[in-house]
Amino acid sequence: MNYSNVFHFDNSKENFNDLYQEGNFTFWYARDFMVMLGYKNYESFSKAINKAMTACMTLEIPVLDNFVQQKRILEGQSIPDYQLSRFACYLIAMNADVTKKEVAQAQAFFVTIAESFRQYIEEPEEIERLLIREEISEHEKTLNSTAKRAGVKEYGLFQNAGYRGMYNMNLKQLKQYKGIKSSRTPLDFMGKEELAANLFRVTQTESKIRNENIKGQNNAEIAAENVGRKVRQTMLEISGTVPEQLPKSEDIKKVKSALKSSHKDFKKIDKGNRDKN
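Now predict its structure.
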């Protein structure tokens, strides 16, 4: 069915809430939802699905409870598709191409639904923060291994050198400057732009150490500081803003908690609808 002519993200016409299907859970087909969001190509749409699934895993919410892969017969052909829960549709919409008017409408639609049962609601940028923050954690593990093979024994000093190059201050000073507890990492309070810059710093530090075969604690610290300084200079040249001047964001732990609450509440909506039926 072509939903492009009948689907609307409002309550005055046939909308998302009217187009669900029932199986083991209330679901929407991914290929149908793709059309609802203004996508023409499933391969392109799959990028939003993959990001949404990654967010689900990051939140430690069972992926198979929200994304069920299956084959469908469409126009006489067997093609891969997903059954998507309401929460899965929400995550996909938040990770989809916001330049599409249908995506912007869908994001506003889901926010309105969520606001009816919670005061705090995640904007698309908050979910992007979550994904980038998780990616940094993974690359920090890789950097740690690379640094260890290079002869780094004091990883804290090595890590501090990268921050010093990027922020013109030590990690301890950065926490004080940003008003962050000494027990927490500043990464948990960074916005998307600042997180992305730090992800670049971490990956490029690893690349530099590996490609230039850098050895020894002191040399590794120098490399980390130099990379951090170049990232800082690049930010200054492009945006005119240094990283420490970027605003502090909501604690990423609160974002995770809010998303987990949304998952439970979206399930309650569909359970309530099924009980009525």
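The first helix runs from residue 30 to 36.
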